[in-house]
Specification:
This protein has 2 domains: about 5-80 and about 185-255, HAD superfamily/HAD-like (Rossmann fold, 3-Layer(aba) Sandwich), CATH 3.40.50.1000; about 85-180, Hypothetical Protein, Haloacid Dehalogenase-like Hydrolase, Chain: A, domain 2 (2-Layer Sandwich), CATH 3.30.1240.10. The chain contains 10 helices and 14 strands. The protein has helices at about 25-35, 50-60, 85-95, 120-125, 140, 155-165, 185-195, 215-220, 230-235, 250-255; strands at about 5-10, 40-45, 60-65, 70-75, 75-80, 100-105, 110, 135, 145-150, 165-175, 175-180, 205-210, 220-225, 240. Strand 4 and strand 5 form a beta hairpin.
Length: about 260
Amino acid sequence: MTEKKMIFFDIDGTLLDHEKNLPPSTKEAIETLKKNGHEVAIATGRAPFMFEDLRKELNIDTFISYNGQYVEHKGEVIVSNPLDYESLKKLTEAAAARNHPLVYMGQGEMKANVEEHDNIVESFNSLKVKSFPTHDPEYFHMEKIYQTLLFCEGQEEKFYEQEFNAFDFIRWHPQSVDVIPAGGSKAKGIERVIEILGVKMENVYAFGDGLNDIEMLAAVGHGVAMGNGRDEAKEAARYTTKAVDEDGILSGLRLVGLLNE
């Protein structure tokens, strides 16, 4: 009997193209994977409420969100790893002193600590999502925060990296970095999922393109970087497929032998 395979897909630049559309070939490929008995999951830096429609469209009920800090399998929460409150309070003070706004991201919503800011608008517009943070600077005092967005440019995150060892800072946009618990990653989320499902890491496949995919692509048995991906992601992966808008998922699944020509 063939051992169960599990495939994790990043969203932006991997499942969705640069216009945030799902290529028809990708949807068909995922449907075929499931028909063939494979487990399919999403692994993203997005919040759960930012990809509900995609989960429904693809009929996927296992997901890793917030870069591994919040994970669900069939409606059950299996990982909940929020940011350290005291460290987040200090980060808020340091960012305010440098005029760098923050967006606090909880399980079901997100709140900005400023009423409006061009960098927040620009980065969220790039995601083409319906969700947009509302203003509540007190939100992080009341809810578990799984990820915070720090809005700064260039190499400005270096200061925070040196001062806050409780966090990792991962750039996802020219204007913004993800702030997650130190050592957290999609790879850690994958470890927990496959432990529950009884899948061996050698039978795990992952597709990604960004800096937040590096650990995941390196950890799984078969890491596949998108052709449009960052060089660092390609270096971490075992394979590189075509770009997302060139049927990259379909080509990659054929490349690793999960789908036939």
